[in-house]
Task: inverse folding
């Protein structure tokens, strides 16, 4: 019978990996929001009429959504990597 080893998620290197996934997701969300504003004049028009707060809410919503998605994807990747080894 094999000895039970702890998950790689709980270790400091696992937390660094998760933080890296979250930062990549945040960067992708920010890039996507910029691309969306530049490529879609309707979105740019809505944001210009909404003021500074609308821009901040728009960007933070996309950044947070992408960061959470990338972090959850990172959890799946780390757990699948644990099962293989």
Result:
């Amino acid at each position: 019978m094999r000895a039970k080893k702890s998950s790689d998620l709980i270790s400091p290197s696992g937390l660094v990996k998760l933080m890296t996934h979250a930062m990549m997701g945040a960067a992708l969300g920010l890039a996507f929001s910029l691309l969306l504003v530049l490529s879609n004049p309707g979105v740019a028009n809505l944001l210009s009429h909404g003021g500074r707060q609308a821009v901040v809410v728009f960007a933070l919503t996309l950044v947070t959504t992408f960061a959470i998605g990338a972090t959850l994807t990172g959890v799946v990747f780390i757990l699948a990597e644990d099962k293989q080894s």
